[in-house]
Amino acid sequence: MARAKICYLHIGAEKTGSTSIQAFLRANRHRLTGHGYLFPRTPGEDNQPALAAYAMKDSSRRNLMAQVGVRSDAALGRFQKEFSADLLAEVAKTAPERIVLTNEHCHSRIETVEELERLATLLHSVADEVRVIFYIRRQDKAATSLYSTALKVGQWRKKPNLAIKGELPISFDYWRTCELYASVFGMQAMRVRLFDRDQLVGGDLIADFCDALEMPAGQDWIVPDSKNQSLGRLGQRFLAAFNQKRQDRFGEQSEHYRMALVRMLDKHFSGKGIKPSQAAAKAFLSHFKAGNEKVRATYFPDMPFPLFGDDFSMYPEKDDTWMPGVFMAFDAGARLFVEQQKEIDRLKAEVAALKADDES
């Protein structure tokens, strides 16, 4: 099988616009093909968790395995065999010059050389060269943004979690990830980029990503609206209250209700969320000082120390303990009720239209 010239592997990191990048790739899949780029469907339509799942040595990472329908080590073995065969077949059928793959779990779940080499062997079977695109963001800002994500998946803590116990979490230990990927793919493969508006090409993430892919300029790309935006303080408080003991209060359908609520909150209550104090943010970032300096010296030698700057003015002096007033809380509930009623009315109208078509 003829291999592609280059495979671009986008690995995140978390809270650096991965969802928007994936939405862009999905919306432009056909246009990309016309320029010699394949964004394959085998790993996933947009986010591609099959890539990280393929790398795993066993099925112990339940959340990741659930995304690809794997429940046992034996099932993982079957999945790996079928996935590799399907990807090879899709690439052979298309015969692209370049391949684009994306999944932030490749950053946060792949932790060992053994795991990464398993994925690397597959990628080198479809492309002569692999380039790793890795966006990084100042860790305190990423962790603060991650608070909304934590609430959206069911947690209910009252503020961003900036506590670190034991080993530095790989989600924020960028140097550890850079070392791992460089050890397997080589330093020449690394494309580390800063998730900072002042550093992005044209101040825009999608324009910067297109630059990383060496995409032709001036194309009429479809650019979807920003995805996975953070909730504002009111939305965060509302969702945290719902999540707490939700199964006891709402029964077996609580997860279904939670997902519907998240969609409505995303639509009506996005914005600037609850933030930690300046002292907490500084303390959190200090854990990564040495690693960040290694990243700067290796990948951004022309940038001043510290890599991400030292401005903490966006944080309050004390922890944000804001809670909505009574009227604001009732108003939020009323707005969500009206939104839900509009959706019910829309569905009723669709049903009525279908019945009318059947009777005509």
TrEMBL record:
Organism annotation? Kordiimonas lacus
Name of the molecule in the record: Sulfotransferase family protein
At the top level, the lineage of the source is Bacteria
